[in-house]
Write a structure and sequence with these properties.
heterodimer, A: mainly alpha, ABC transporter involved in vitamin B12 uptake, BtuC, 2 domains, two-stranded antiparallel sheet, 72% helix, globular, B: alpha/beta, Rossmann fold, six-stranded mixed sheet, two-stranded parallel sheet
Chain lengths: 668, 265
Amino acid sequence: MGDVAVSMSGSTHPPLRPFGLVLLLGVPALLAGLVNLSMQLPPGQWWHALIQPDATDIAELLVLYSFAPRLVVSLLAGAALGLAGALLQQVLRNPIASPTTLGIEAGANLALGATLVFAPVLIGFGREWVALGGGLLTVTLVLLLSRRSGLAPLVVILAGMVTGLVCAALAALLTLFNSHYLAGLFLWGAGSLSQQDWAVPRELAPRLALMGAAALLLLRPLALLGLEDGAARSLGLSLKVSRFTALAVAVALTGSVVASVGSFGFVGLAAPMLARLGGARRLGTRLLVATLLGAALLCLTDQMVILLSSSSGMLLPTGAVTAMLGGPLLLWMLPRLNLPPHTASGLIAPTAGTGRPFMCLGVLAVVLVIAAVLSASLGPGLEGWSIAAPGDPVWSLRLPRILAAIAGGTLLAVAGGILQRVTGNPLASPEVLGVSAGAAGGLVVALFVFDTIDRSGQTLAAMAGASLALVVILALARASKGSPERVILAGIAIGALLDSLVSILMASGDPRAMRLFNWMTGSTYGIDAASAASSLAAAGLVLAALPLVARWLEILPLGDASARALGISSLRSRSLLLALAAITTALATLLVGPLSFVGLIAPPLARLVGLRRPLPELFGAALLGSVIMAVADFIGRSIAFPWQLPAGLVASAIGAPVFLWLLTRKKT
Amino acid sequence: MALDFGLAETLIEMGLPPIAVPDPQTWADWVVEPPLPADIVNLGTDREPNLELLAALRPDLIVTTPFLGDITPVLERLAPTRTFSVYAPPPGHLFDRSVTATRELAALVDRESAGEALITRAHMLMEEIRAHIAAVDLTGHSLLIVQFLDARHVRVFGRGSLFGDVLDRCGLRNGWTRPSNYWGFSTVGIEELSQSPTSSLVYLEPIAPDTLATLAASPLWNSLPFVKTGRIYRLPPALMFGMVPSAMRFARQLSRVLGGGPSHG
């Protein structure tokens, strides 16, 4: 693996340039802060408020105990995350590593949520220890999972993202059943910086200082880590110890921020990234600049949030807003990143399949039918489990959701299969590429802009969102000459944008947000027979269209030259296929939510059972996806009766481990 | 069968308790009175009531809210279904809407007289409390009605919220004047509460166990005008998204704590 370098269009930079970048962000942050402050208190009283506050003047007390600590916390938390991100990027030699992309924040958050619900006593020992434990567990898992690939950046980030998503899904489950006690967790998970005293800064400052000192001590060994493994080893360096120490420092920094104020997605990614782009080449400079930039970035965002909140009266969680700003930032940077070539995860082999595809598909179809019939006839009720014969009234309630789950599974699996073929990347899928997130985003916007919106309106909104996401991704893919890493990163960025949008809505406390949340977790609940039937028909149509595009799917992975030689316009066929994938994803997202991993795992599973040519693979994936969703729906419906778990969430609980297992296999 | 606590409490008060509600275990945390029938069936979550169970119970009537608008077509196939839009856009006066909804509900279940009696009881109660408030010389007194989300954030109930309407009727004043959402509340940081310096604070249970201790250690909290002068009242739960019975319960509790003098914690 080569050294990871990030360059900005070639030119060399004077050494002061990175600090200029700090000023560029820091000065507006300062100005915004001054504007906010002067709105709260006339400038003449500022000094007085900080030194000798008048205990009867609420404005002075607000400045002393709310505004000032909030400003300090935003600086400290931003600095901590910036430093953590820079350390992680250096240790893993991965320019897109960060507390967010490695799942550390999500892991710490889940640990806190779970402790709050199951063992509140432990919280007494200190929230930061719980968060630290959660973060360490997550990062260990991520590294173990990606160990086989030699910690290739893309594989690490994918493992991190997926682990992060699983943690978020589990935290979502906690929330579904404990919404009252976790109401505060929503706010805090979304990163609210509001303060009432100096306790948090008093907590954070010494920790940051301690970790900063540790980073300083690690500077030399870390700088050597930037060299080739071989070179570093020949210098007699214990790679493992310094790597682990630096990793622990980064996790501790993240953990203390998450424990005291919550998650601030992307600050830890953006700050070190900006530092590199600004030309901070030496490690020491980079760590310092990343720390400063993190502080400036979070402070600027937070001051803007204060400005906005005071004018709109809406409570905006700063963490969600950072993610909202961080997403586009990441998108903007992607074409400027210089990642090592993609090797480890392996392209889809264009070899012909062996075995008998019809047999295989037949068996899968039988399994699906059995699963569907069992699910329709079995279920718990008032007097325990019972079997219902076809025609029983409960069939009319169960069938629509089973059919919707099957349609959703089919559509996602087909979309995933197409995307994997077209991008030549076995890790592509509607979930990872942000197409699902785009569809969900379109729907979210529509739900909140229009008070009432019917199903066809929802479909249109979801399709618009999915297409928009796909267009953005394609534009990026073109700008980066189709490199799959960038495409996937663009997907992460779009997914984060959506998450932040949803967090903001959730934090507003609007009860509609809870419903949205329900849908986001992929509930097949309440689908009526007509919608289920039309979804199934749509899935059937998509399957029927597959033979028309099978040739393209076979030839495109061979490369543009081969495609041209065979008389296929790769641009046109690729665009059509991607459009098909977008429509398919939009339909599926409406049914089973944006997060199920079915699109990710069904195609590789189909290849695993020996279906290697495009058409059998896609049909096999469709069947497998259907089975997974049907089973997930059954489990969700019956495991906690009369409570119900959303099928999408159950599917992701099944799918994520499968995906991680696939990821650790050498080749699919 | 009622899919909403506000509708359920109204039905109970009219002497026609529902056979099933979603999540009855939380009734004691949020609604308390009137008590639920002991044999009430749990329908699961209020966002996704279990349809199979619902169908198996063969209800004569399902009353629901726009909150469950997505499944109304399914419900309509299972039993006669009626939707009541109290908590729906646009923001409005929620007590007035509750009264209207109570009349409609009473007509629907042939309990017009019981419905009218409930409304009259509510109006009389508010008049009584208004007189009581005047007697203890609190008329025009300004209050902030909040519910703690954690030690840093509250839901504050604004003008037109169910509780805000009760304040108006009892001769009290709502200290929170900024616009609210159609559920009648805004989510804000506690420091925002300082913008109404003359108000007393009324907070509703349930409250997380560590919140008060955290607040007691907070200098900003301690500097808020109502904290310094001890004008804080703790109120047992009353459903903030309820209907007429919740408004009555809130009014009774409020009059009890106000009349009995300020109390801490």
